[in-house]
Amino acid sequence: DVKVTQSSRYLVKRTGEKVFLECVQDMDHENMFWYRQDPGLGLRLIYFSYDVKMKEKGDIPEGYSVSREKKERFSLILESASTNQTSMYLCASSLTPNYEQYFGPGTRLTVT
Amino acid sequence: DAKTTQPPSMDCAEGRAANLPCNHSTISGNEYVYWYRQIHSQGPQYIIHGLKNNETNEMASLIITEDRKSSTLILPHATLRDTAVYYCIVRSTGTASKLTFGTGTRLQVTL
User: Fold this and answer.
1) Can you give the pLDDT at residue B41?
2) Each residue's pLDDT expressed in tens, for chain A with a length of 112 residues
3) For residue B63, which of A83, B6, B50, B98 sits 20 to 30 Å off, Cα-Cα?
4) Distance from CA of B66 to the nearest CA of A (A)
5) Which pLDDT does position B29 carry in this prediction?
């Protein structure tokens, strides 16, 4: 079974802090994704990566950056956290671009 | 990617088949139909996908109409653990194609 893990289930940070969200997959998948999920807005793609050191902006990349130094790990970085980044963050991976995506359990981030 | 329309909520008795409909009338030839579900406070879980033929796996069956403008996800024997929000997604093939989740159908399985 594919396993996607995220570093924290719940996180509370202060405005202006730099925040790192980590995602690890154990299935040698090429593609990894970061989404955020908000009530009434569904899932929105922040960034994705189709190879090590490669990244592409999704629909809402502003205020975020990513890092993929190793195939199994994809990090989402909030350079200076703001209250409007309070959300559920979901990481996903897929074998190829067209394969199904497998999601981690999510990190519920609260920025105060 | 084509948009999808799903009913906001459905109920199903435990042990009965749950049939969840989805309309995707603007689907194009290279777009697949995917189904995911999300149990409260968890990440979405992949269920099944198809292009034009009906598909079945250990979790569910997917019936796609001949004109591909609608589909039905069937959970043959629903259990309480199937209570979740079910998302129908139409997705094009292409480089790292994203998933666009709508509001889905909230399925409540009851005793």
Assistant:
1) 82
2) 669 999 999 999 999 999 999 999 999 999 999 999 998 888 899 999 988 988 999 999 999 999 999 999 999 999 999 999 999 999 999 987 777 889 999 999 999 9
3) B98
4) 23
5) 85
Residues of A in contact with B84 (CB under 8 A): none
Sign of torsion over alpha carbons A68, A69, A74, A79: negative
What whole-number distance in Å separates Cα of residue A91 and Cα of residue A89? 7
Question: Who's near A45: CB < 8 A, 6+ residues apart?
Answer: A33, A34, A35, A58, A59, A60, B98, B99
Longest Cα separation, chain A: 38
Chain B positions touching A40 (Cβ under 8 A) are 103
SS3 state at A83: helix
Residue partners of A6: CB distance under 8 A and separation at least 6:
A21, A22, A23, A89, A91, A104, A105, A106, A107
Q: Residue B58: helix, strand or coil by DSSP?
A: coil
| CA distances for A27 relative to A51, A102, B41, B74, angstroms | 14, 10, 24, 28
Q: Apex CA B33: angle with CA B28 and CA B34, to 5°?
A: 150
Contact between residue A63 and residue A17 where contact means Cβ atoms under 8 Å apart? no
pLDDT at residue B1 tops 80: no
Distance of residue A112 Cα from the nearest chain B Cα, in angstroms: 21
* Type of residue numbered B96: A
Q: Among partner residues A48, A105, A106, which is closest to B96 by beta-carbon distance?
A: A48
